[in-house]
Amino acid sequence: MSDVALDDRGRLTLPKEVRERYGDRYHVVQLPDGIKLIPVADDPLEALRDEFADVEKSADELRNEAREAALDAAGR
């Protein structure tokens, strides 16, 4: 963990190690007790493909399963 400070123009410089690991683009999320930086992939669609590469079901199949589970949880 590193301590960083804003410069006189309100900019925050992240340490080189952080930039090398997570990249140069972030979403800033405001939380009740602080902020969180969420890295943004250079190619978000490619990142999603990589994340779900091992999923063998179609989006329709996943959607139907989720719908059925929600109905069961609601006491269908």
UniProtKB/TrEMBL annotation:
GO MF: DNA binding
Domain SpoVT-AbrB: 4-45
Protein's UniProt keywords contain Coiled coil: yes
Keywords in alphabetical order: Coiled coil
Domain of life: Archaea
Matches recorded under InterPro entries: SpoVT-AbrB_dom (IPR007159), SpoVT-AbrB_sf (IPR037914)
Membrane in keyword set: no
Coiled coil, from the record: 45-72
Protein name, entry field: SpoVT-AbrB domain-containing protein
UniProt source species: Natrinema hispanicum
